[in-house]
Amino acid sequence: MDLDFIKKLIKKNDTKIVMIVMDGIGGLPREEDGLTELETADTPNLDSLAAKGVCGLQQPVASGITPGSGPGHLALFGYDPVKYQVGRGVLSALGIGFDLKPEDVAARGNFCTIDENGVVVDRRAGRIPTEKNIELCNMLKGIELPGVDVFVETVKEHRFLLVLRGSGLSGDLIDTDPQRVGEKPLQPRGLSSEAGKTVELVRRFIDEARTLLRNQHPANMILFRGFSKKPCWPSMTEVFGLNCAAIAVYPMYRGLSRLLGMHVLETGQAIKEEFDTLEDNWDKFDFFFLHVKKTDSYGEDGDFVRKVKVIEEVDREIPRLLGLKPDVIIVTGDHSTPSALKFHSWHPVPVLLWSKYCRADNVKQFGERACISGGLGPRIPAVDIMPIVLANAKRLEKYGA
Fold it and tell me: What is the number of other CB atoms lying within 10 angstroms of the CB of residue 66?
């Protein structure tokens, strides 16, 4: 979607929009009954919305492309993820409220477990508790590098933030995370000639971290993803005329929301508490992004049953949402994370849109196979969802005479 084009069609209205993103909601059938996690879940409220609304499958980036969480969310918010690219380091920094400067290079770090041969056996170090993360980050804060300031901050569980501040730095580096177990961490490498200085600094940091962490099993090594500098993009208020709020527990999604100009609301850890926050702030905003993380976490852990239970937990909160009388509801995910794969996948993601003005289709259940025959189509580009949402919220002018 062309943001400059859609911006010219925006009109004011007081309608309210709620976008619920169950991270990694898409799945694959399990062998015993041929049902996905979403199809297995008992979701009478979501099914009722599906019967009254319009459904489909959305493609976050492009056919066959497995998206990261950043691109998947950007597409849902109407930003072409091929054009608008940002590394997870920036999102992590903004997510914890780090004061990121234009010259800074940020990277998202994972504490991980390596064996005696230096091979990664657990990319998340058993999802160590945040308290242990703080202890380890305090150790890494002792690392000094020539000519730059070094910042190491805890994010959550196994995740931490590295920021390098100084002149002549570049975010044009590959990840050192091999994205799978059974391989050694990748060596820092630049993607441009300007990245040489930064590559050497990162290499020195990793070498010193390896020494400091060698006896800290299971978190005895680090991996980096998403080296980047902070971009300057138009906000959702500038483009869509929306007063936006984000309700998210995990820092990365809070960071992305801040990058797009959303007000990030403080909320509790539980799904119920996120809906409490929605209720408490209902009169203050006209667009709410409510993020649910555990669907993705349990998918990555290969835990089919727990992923199902999270979906059911969201379903139980839908009557509270309906009681607020929103004008448009969207329920979808940023990508698929089938528990069968234990990783993000390329599969299209179920999407449900409900409003007083949507043209209902024949879908009666919110699930992958049902949605494939929905009125939104079997593979709608995710960037096309936001204009449809705005139209249903009566926030778009007619185009042309």
Answer: 16
